[in-house]
């Protein structure tokens, strides 16, 4: 991994600012993004420069949509029809997320730069928290590839098994390859479907991965804010030490609020997509499983559920961390401040009492209650469709 990092990653992966340990940890995801022409953290990235990648992706999307529609026009199996519509829902989500990802590249670059410099420098003052953050980032990358490869490999291995016993099936049972099932057409169609399946899974999840990455930094930086206000009487003029801590808190808090506002703007629409996707997807998956339990298809629920959980859990954490910071500020020994500094404290108190959170474009707060509401609505839709079917 050291050879790969030193000789390849620094040469082929560019990010805003100086290369540091954060870049090194996130490098595997950035390398795959570059392979698909989606490495938008590169300051020199442009749509024109990677036009060939985007045109190939558009070709794959059209190819798979046509294959799915062709299959739906020829099948009468209820379970496969449901699975086919699930495929179209995921592709629709991809079509919406794909341009949003590129449109927000400048804010994403700015957020990444703030995270790996300003926030990480603050977090690094506490060595234990810095190591915890780096561990979280490593686990995040590992989880990303597990969630991609688990469903992907289940489809690949199934198709390869049938191929080994001289029986040819499509990679997805609900998508036709639109060419004869003979060599070399079958192999070409199989390869195109495999590339598309991995790319669509990667892009859909990598957008969510960056959200989790940004929120990791925000949450741990909030913990550091509370620590800044813990001033001990170790020596020196206590009043001056209190004022110095309060000033440092104000600057760090202001930077974090600017950072959070950028994240909120980036994911204003992107957070709405998973809510709508999960609402439809869970309903369709339950409909499919009432006909026949397909364990390979059921693996699709893993990234789907993880996606909505991550968004709403971190939305809840933003509110919790804001309350913790306000509480730490209230417990601050403000009575020990000089008179002129107490006015600054009162201004900061008024500012931190504002409601902070992440909302979708429709004004929905990201929280655990929102997630439960989506699951409830999805089940209600499933119950209605099942009763109509009966």
Write the SSE topology:
Layout: H1 2-12, H2 21-35, H3 51-74, H4 78-103, H5 105-124, H6 127-164, H7 185-228, H8 238-266, H9 272-291, H10 295-298, H11 301-330, H12 339-352, H13 368-389
Helix pairs in contact: 2-6, 3-4, 3-7, 4-7, 4-9, 5-7, 5-8, 6-7, 7-8, 7-11, 9-11, 9-13, 11-13
The tally of beta strands, per DSSP, is: 0
Global geometry: elongated
Weakly predicted, low-confidence segments: none
How far apart are the first and last residues' alpha carbons, in Å? 56 Å
Q: Give the DSSP E fraction (strand runs of 2 or more residues).
A: under 5%
SSE topology string: HHHHHHHHHHHHH
Number of helices: 13
Radius of gyration: 25 Å
Oligomer: single chain
Strand count, sense and barrel status of the largest sheet are:
none
State the secondary-structure class. mainly alpha
Task: Compute the number of structural domains.
Answer: 1
Mean pLDDT across all amino acids: 83
Helix content: over 70%
What are its keywords?
390 residues; mainly alpha; 13 helices; 76% helix; elongated; odorant binding; 7tm6_olfct_rcpt; transmembrane; Odorant receptor
Structure description:
This protein is 76% helix and 0% strand. The chain contains 13 helices and no strands. Helix 3 crosses helix 7, helix 4 packs across helix 7 and helix 5 packs across helix 7. The longest helix is centred in the middle third of the chain and has 44 residues. The protein is elongated.
